[in-house]
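Subject — a protein and its fold
Fields — amino acid sequence, structure tokens
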Amino acid sequence: MPLGRVSDPAVLQFEGGYMLHAPSPIPMNSKAPVPQDLDEVEIQCIIRNFITGTNNAVRAGFDG
């Protein structure tokens, strides 16, 4: 799950060894780490995952 450039890399590592990803390699500020930018395939995968999650929530009865 991409959390963007405001994510804490230490928390991402602790939670499962995730990388710091964002739509672009622009850090939040001059002291923040540079996130790895996403390519078109990764962005499309994230979009599909959100669609799947939304459909699952609707089927489970969530309405808003």
Remarks:
- The chain is about 40% helix and 5% strand.
- Residues 39 and 57 are 27 Å apart (CA to CA).
